[in-house]
Design goal:
This protein is an alpha/beta fold. The chain contains ten helices and 14 strands. The longest helix is centred in the middle third of the chain and has 16 residues, at 173-188.
Amino acid sequence: MIKKNVLYVKNLNKIYYKNRSKTIHALKNLNLEVKEGEIFGLLGPNGAGKSTFINILAGTSVKSSGEIDVWGFNLDKNPRQVRASIGVVPQEINVDPFFSPRKLLELQAGLYGVKKKDRITDTILELVSLKNQANSYSRSLSGGMKRRLLVAKALVHQPPIVILDEPTAGVDVELRKKLWESVKSLNKQGVTIILTTHYLLEAEEICDRIGILNNGNLVALDSTENLLKKIQTKIVTFLLNGKVNIFDKSLNSLNIIYNSADKLIVSYERSKLHINELIDFINKQKIKISDISTEDADLEDVFVRLTKN
């Protein structure tokens, strides 16, 4: 089944004018599509253009040029429908300390024009695991609870797309886990998730597809699996009963990381060298291999390589 695009971006540009002689090109001809029901990760170093992109979608920044369609609505022709199709969870925690989660959600729903009979406040509170704190002052909530409350506020108008900007920044491991459980539960109900994060391991585990921004340019856009395949480097550790007489140029693309009397660690390009060639090389020196462990590239390797280049 082919899923439709819920976000379509074509040749998007954003230029900030500092003065007559200096401009900052925050987004440069950005093209991407996000499909219905997926979890899409937007990654990039600080200053890459992630927040600028989110601000344009949220309506707090105006694009310089380009085309954006959200849920079938064009941003230029139907800005109100675009805003209604998106729920944004900001990076900064901004909740009124003197209101309870229930009161805050009711107020937010009112701002979106949701009629009282159509509000799903209790359902949302249960979804983000805040039902027990529904009537407590927001100032008494922990950092993780406040994060989940921000997610709840973004859901009051039941948007089909939710954007999370660095949702786990400054949150400890346990609370981060609970937050991701809420996000996955939301996604299972059909909500499309777009998130930015600095935690690459999280993106690797949770995202269906990933786009990587660098200096306003989209340097990668693919499934998480395909991005990982793009890094050909493989690291292998051998436990041995003697030191191997081996050098960086002994085999094609080989790089010696560590070589001692009982251990050899090397890296190589999978397209240029097969592990069997390496094993044969060691066996010819009459050295016994007691164990082999391998390590493939992770998303951090992909990220570093693409943003450096």
